[in-house]
C-alpha cells in the first residue's frame, strides 16, 4: 500500500494520473450525505482532505492541518458511495463506515448566547467539486449554527469562493485583504437567512 506522502505526490504530479482521476464529478445529489464528524476515523479523514486541498493543492499552509479549536468545534463532512473503480491511490483513511469522505468544514461557536460563530477549513477534494458536496457541508453547519443560537456566522473567504458563499446567504463585509499572498474577503451571514 502507498504511503500518504506517495499518494499526494502521485496526485499532484504531471504524469498520467489525469485519466485515472478524471472520475466522479457526475454524482447524483441523492448520493451525497452530509453529517457531523465524530471520533478519530472521521477526524483523520477530515485532516486528509484539508491536507490535500490547503497544503498540497494550494500550498496555502504547511503540513499541519489541525489547530486548538478542533476539539471544541462542530465538524461537518460529506460522503459519497465508494466508487467500484476508486483508484488504490486514494488513501484508505478517506473511507469511513463504507463511504468516501469528499468534503469537509468546521463550525466554531463563540462564547455565550447570541454570539458570532465562525466557519473555517471548508474544502472539497478536487476530483469531487461541483457536485454539491461543499454546499451540503455548508448547509449542515449553518443549520447547526442556527440551532445553537448564533446570531451571525462569519468566515474569511478565498477570493474565488465568494460566489459559493453568496449563494448560501453570506454577504461581503469591508474590503478584501491578503493572507499569505491570497486575496480573502470577510463575509457574514445573519441567523435564519434562507437555506435552500
Ligand atoms: C469552494 C469549494 C469548497 C466548493 O466546494 P464544491 O463541493 O465544489 O461546491 P458545490 O459543488 O457544493 O457548489 C455549490 C454551488 O456553488 C458554486 N460554486 C462552487 N465553487 C465555486 C466557485 N469557486 N466559484 C463560483 N461558484 C462556485 C457551484 O457552481 C454550485 O452552484 P449551483 O448550486 O448553482 O450548482 C471548493 O471549490 C474547494 O474546496 N476549493 C478549494 C478550497 C477553498 O477555496 N475553500 C474555501 C476556503 S474559504
List keywords for this structure.
196 residues; alpha+beta; Aminopeptidase; 9-stranded mixed β-sheet; 5 helices; 9 strands; globular; binds coenzyme A
Task: Write up what this structure looks like.
This protein is α+β, with helices and mostly antiparallel strands and 196 residues long. The protein has a single domain (4-190), classed as Aminopeptidase, CATH 3.40.630.30. Helix content is 27%, strand content 28%. It contains five helices and nine strands; from the N terminus they run ααβαββββαβαβββ. It has helices at 4-12, 17-21, 39-57, 133-147, 162-166; strands at residues 33-37, 74-81, 95-96, 99-108, 116-124, 152-158, 171-172, 177-179, 182-190. Strands 1, 2, 3, 4, 5, 6, 7, 8 and 9 form a nine-stranded mixed sheet that branches. The longest helix has 19 residues, at 39-57. Residues 1-23 have low confidence and may be disordered. The structure holds coenzyme A.
Bound molecules: coenzyme A
Order of helices and strands: HHEHEEEEHEHEEE
Uncertain regions spanning at least 5 consecutive residues = 1-23
CATH superfamily name? Gcn5-related N-acetyltransferase (GNAT)
Number of helices: 5
Q: Please report the total strand number as a whole number.
A: 9
Global geometry: globular
User: What value does the Rg take, in angstroms?
Assistant: 17 Å
How much helix, percentage-wise, in residues?
25-40%
Q: Specify the structural class.
A: alpha+beta
CATH architecture: 3-Layer(aba) Sandwich
Number of domains: 1
N-to-C terminal Cα separation, in Å? 42 Å
How much of the polypeptide forms β-strand, as a percent range?
25-35%
The major pleated sheet works out as: 9 strands, mixed
At CATH level 3, the topology is: Aminopeptidase
CATH class group: Alpha Beta
Task: Return the average pLDDT rounded to an integer.
Answer: 87
Amino acid at each position: 500500500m502507498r504511503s500518504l506522502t506517495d499518494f499526494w505526490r502521485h496526485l499532484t504530479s504531471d504524469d498520467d494520473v489525469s485519466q485515472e482521476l478524471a472520475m466522479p464529478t457526475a454524482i447524483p445529489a441523492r448520493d451525497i450525505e452530509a453529517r457531523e464528524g465524530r471520533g478519530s476515523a472521521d477526524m483523520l479523514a477530515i485532516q486528509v482532505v484539508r491536507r490535500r486541498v490547503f497544503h498540497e493543492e494550494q500550498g496555502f499552509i504547511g503540513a499541519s492541518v489541525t489547530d486548538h479549536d478542533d476539539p471544541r468545534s462542530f465538524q461537518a463532512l460529506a460522503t459519497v458511495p465508494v466508487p467500484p473503480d476508486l483508484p488504490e491511490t486514494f488513501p484508505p483513511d478517506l473511507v469511513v463506515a463504507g463511504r468516501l469522505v469528499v468534503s469537509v468544514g468546521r463550525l466554531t461557536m463563540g462564547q455565550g448566547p447570541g454570539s458570532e460563530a465562525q466557519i473555517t477549513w471548508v474544502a472539497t477534494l478536487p476530483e469531487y467539486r461541483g457536485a454539491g458536496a461543499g454546499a451540503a457541508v455548508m448547509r449542515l453547519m449553518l443549520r447547526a449554527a442556527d440551532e445553537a443560537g448564533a446570531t451571525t456566522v462569519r468566515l474569511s473567504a478565498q477570493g474565488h469562493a465568494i460566489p459559493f458563499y453568496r449563494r448560501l446567504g453570506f454577504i461581503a463585509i469591508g474590503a478584501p485583504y491578503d493572507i499569505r499572498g491570497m486575496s480573502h474577503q470577510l463575509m457574514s451571514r445573519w441567523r435564519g437567512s434562507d437555506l435552500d
